[in-house]
Structure formats: structure tokens, C-alpha cells
Amino acid sequence: MIALTIIQTNLDRCRKCYACVRACPVKTISISNGLPDIKEDGCIKCGRCISACSIGAKMVNDESLVVQNWIAHGDKVAALVAPSFVADFNPPLAPGLFRKLGFSKVYEVAYGAEICTLEYKKLFKEDLHQTLISTPCPAIVQLVEKHFTGLIEYLAPIDSPMIIQAKIVKEALPHYKTVFIGPCIAKKHEAKNGEQKNIVDAVITFKQIKKWIEALDLDVSTVEKVSWDSPGAGLARSFPISGGLLKTAGIAENVAAMDVVITEGAKKCIEVLKAIETGDFAPKFVDMLACEGCITGPEMISNAPYVTKAGLVAKYIQSNSDHHIQLKEFSSNINFRRTFTAKPIKRKKYTDAQIWEVLKSTGKYSEDDLINCGACGYDTCWEKAVACFEGMAENEMCLPYLLMQVPSIKQNLEKISNELMASIESVHFAMLTIKTTSKQISEKDKLLQELVDDLKDIFTAIPNIKSEEISEDLIKQLNAVETKENLNKITKILSEIRKENMVVMEQEQAITKVASSLEQIVATYQQLVTLGSALANISRNYS
């Protein structure tokens, strides 16, 4: 894991299923040895990978302890609560709950959304000559800044409700620290980057707040009912559901003319941005959200259906419709406008011939072989091959390629197994031969020793005798028939021992060969197990 990154991967928990790759709309997750690595330069922090990881290997950087330390040390801390809180917390008790956690002030960011809407109304009155893309969603902002840099000028130059609310609090209470609380991971990036940096001091998600509450063993039902510190909000409380910005601004989506469009979900947003980029689509205004409304954000606690959560938001708006909204004038030094910076991802160009070489390495030789099953996480085989060139993907991620290997590996395993079975008898024979031969060698070695002992007197005497001192008796001993026979026996025995040693060596080589076959079987079996594991992991989350 890399410290201080917003989204981290616990590699010990990862099952190599590529669910995160499939979920990533911008394919910024690389795979090395089957394990994922999120590339920060391309990540838009939409959190789809977190939602897709069913075993919890993806984690979100948690600033709860930092905020708790501020509170413990007596710092004044203001909670800025996202409008989507209604779907996760009991609205009447929410302000008191956050006060119980130690926050000195508690604000509805829906109030900041009201101010945000006023800024959009001002912008709509201007003479616009090109498409305008909404910017409350920080994941959409990053999507354009990193992957559609040619559309930077299309982004509405207006702060998000979070930043607007934080600016208002900072102006009124400059000594306060501001903490945004919501379901959005991309807000963590927004708070730490760009010209808005340090306006929001920390971002905690709803799930992280839940852990905080559980750690305190806090009984939420006993929380005292208190009021929000913000003046209130009206229709801006609908920001977390589909078309909330347009509803608040009093602008209707024009389905017939397609000049005012609502687009939700990162993949759909990418389709629309591509169409705008090519000139095939030229609406006046596109209200974009990376999620299908903030109430489906990756760090929402509730798993209830969209309509159920949207109904809670609508009910909350209706029950508070008579609340008087005080949109007071702010000092002229508060600027709710912003700019954007292109952060293009550098990518190399590859020829079709190069891509086909990668495709051939996974058994794809023609257009008919490009089945585009999506198991690897990429929409097409071509995209995955490009990713291999970029070092973002591996051949082994291809499910059909892995399946193609099974028959050959199985056949190889059977072949080696048959060879091993045929060698078992030869191993048994070799063992018996070695045992018998070794016994024979031992016996001959004993006989050899006896012969050498018989000739010992003659052999030890020769080196000490001078030539003039050689006696006739010694010559007779050397020429004796018995001595010659013993010497011939020694020569014969040495020759037999040499041959028998060669037999032993040959049998040992035969055993070594069989042992090598066994090693091949183990290696092939391990290859089959690894392949099976990869297939199981891919299939487990293949959807």
C-alpha cells in the first residue's frame, strides 16, 4: 500500500479477480503479477473500484483520527454535511449527532448548494456560445482535466457547494477548521488540490463517520435534537438526486431539443464527452454526475434502492418547505468562481501491426477471434492489447487464453505421468541392481585386500633394496607362479570393480532421469493449479 493516497489496495486481501479493472471507467488500474495498482495520474476518484471489490481489498484514506485530535486539543471544528445525509442518517437527529461527536458548528451543505445555484443562474444569463458542463461533481472535473483536456473551457467556472459552504464558514469563522462529511471519495481530492486547497481542512465519508460512532458505542437514539447552524435550504436539498441542480435553478431538461441534458454514471458521461469532443453532440448545458446521484456514492452506508433513498430526500424537502432561507449578502472578497487546469495523461501511439503481435500472443489471429468478452476488465480485446503495451495489463488476464491452455497442459501432464509409470519398474530394477552390484563390489574389495596382504612383504621390500643387493631369493619370489597368479587376480578384480561401478552409475542416472520426470510433473501440476486459480478468480466476479 502507498501511504497518503486516497484509494489504497490491501494486496494481502486481493483475489486477483480484476473486478476493479472492470469497474474503472478510465482504466487507470494497472496489473502486475496479477495484482492491481491504481495510477494516481489517471484516477478520477469516482470510487467504482471500491464498490466493485466484494472482499474489501480497496480502502479509502481516513482522516477521522486527524479530526478527532483537533477536537481533543480544543480546536474549533465545523462539520459541513452533504445533502445526501438524509438517506443515511435521521434528519431531525443529524445536527445533534455531529455535535455529540465534538463538532462546534454543524452546517447543511445544501445551503452552499443554494448559493451555487445562484451562480449558475448568473452564468445562464451570460451570452454563452458553447456547451456548458456542470462542475459540482469533482470526479467529472477530474475526468475532463485528465482525459478530455480539450473540453476544459466547457467546464462551468463555479465552485462546488462544498467549497462555497467552506468559504462562507471561513469568512465568518476564520479560526475554525472545516470538515466535509459525505458519500464522495473525489471530495477528498478536491479538498487537497487546485486553487480550492486548504479551504476544506479534512473530508470524512459517511462510512467513516459510522465507524467513529461505533467506536464510541454511541446510542444515536439518545442524541439531543438541535438546529443546524446554517440558515437553511430549499430545493437545493435535491442536489444529491437526479437533476437536482436543474430543479433548484428552475430549468427543465429538454428531451426533445436535447439542449439541456442530465447525464449520470461515469461511463455515460464519457460517452457524452466523446460526442461533444467530436462535434457529434452540442447541447447548451449538461448536468453531469459520476454517480447516479450523490445518494449512490461509493461511501453511502445504505444499500437501499435508488428510489427509496430519493424518496427520503424528497420527503425531507417537503417537510422543510416552509423553512425560511436567508441568502444573506456576503462580503465582496468571497469569490465563488474558479478555473481549471489540464492534466493530460501522456500515452504512446502504437501501430496496428504492434497490437496484432500482442493479440497473437493470446491466440487471436483475426477479427473473428476478438470476442470482446470483457473478463479481463477491458471493453474490447484491442483495448486490452494496448494496455499490455502500456504496461497496464498482462496476457494472463485473458480468460479465453487461459481456457485455451488447459487442454495442452492436461495433455502434457498425462504424457509425463505415463512416462513416469513406465519408469517405475526400471527404478525398481535399478535399485536391486545397485544393491546386488554394491554387494559384489564389497566382496571383491575384500578379496583384493587379501591378495594385496599376501604380496605385502614383497611390495614393501622392493623400494628399500639397492640394485646390487637384489638377491636370488627375491627374484625367485617375484617369478613365482603364485605371485604372478595373485597379480593377475588383482588386475582382473580391479577391472570387474570398474565395470560394476559403471553399472551402478548407469542405474543412478536412470533414477535421476525418473526423478527429473517427477519434477516436471510437479511443475506442470503447479502450472495447472495456478491456471485454475486464475480462472476461478476471474470467473468469481465476472459479470
Q: What's the topology here?
A:
Blueprint: E1 7-9, H1 19-23, E2 29-32, E3 35-38, H2 48-52, E4 58-60, H3 64-72, E5 77-81, H4 94-100, E6 105-108, H5 109-125, E7 132-133, H6 138-147, H7 161-172, E8 177-182, H8 186-192, E9 202-205, H9 206-216, H10 244-249, E10 260-264, H11 266-278, E11 285-289, H12 306-319, H13 352-360, H14 381-389, H15 399-454, H16 456-461, H17 472-479, H18 481-540
Helix pairs in contact: 5-7, 13-14, 15-18
Provide a descriptive summary of the structure in words.
The chain is α/β, with parallel strands linked by helices and 543 residues long. It has 3 domains: 62-319, no CATH class; 352-394, no CATH class; 401-540, Helix Hairpins. The chain is built from 18 helices and 11 strands. The chain has helices at residues 19-23, 48-52, 64-72, 94-100, 109-125, 138-147, 161-172, 186-192, 206-216, 244-249, 266-278, 306-319, 352-360, 381-389, 399-454, 456-461, 472-479, 481-540; strands at 7-9, 29-32, 35-38, 58-60, 77-81, 105-108, 132-133, 177-182, 202-205, 260-264, 285-289. The strands form 4 sheets. It has a 4-stranded parallel beta sheet with strand order 6-5-8-9, with helices on both faces. A hairpin with a 2-residue loop joins strand 2 (29-32) and strand 3 (35-38). The chain is elongated, with a radius of gyration of 40 Å. The two termini are 27 Å apart.
